[in-house]
Amino acid sequence: MTDMTVANTIAQQIGRRAFVMMGTRHKLGDDRSLTFDCRGSRTVNKIRVELNSLDLYDLTFWKVTRRNGEFKVKVVEKVEGVYFDGLRDVIERGTGLCLNL
User: Global pTM?
Assistant: First the structure.
């Protein structure tokens, strides 16, 4: 059984409203990270937030496409050493979306 404490904490720190504004349908968590989809952005459609050994977050932004039955995965950007209160700002810059009303 996987401990979802870190994944749930990351989701709370990002906020439910931000997930709605990104069009997130699916979230996948494990004992060190949370990965979710982003349907509102043209540049990325998958984001992974991972807790590192310094108790900070590392974010990876991907663009996953499917053509002729084959998937192509491109890492668009990696950001390391983000404090919990900077998660939304980094996600906004990486996706080009506004996550605040």
Answer: 0.92
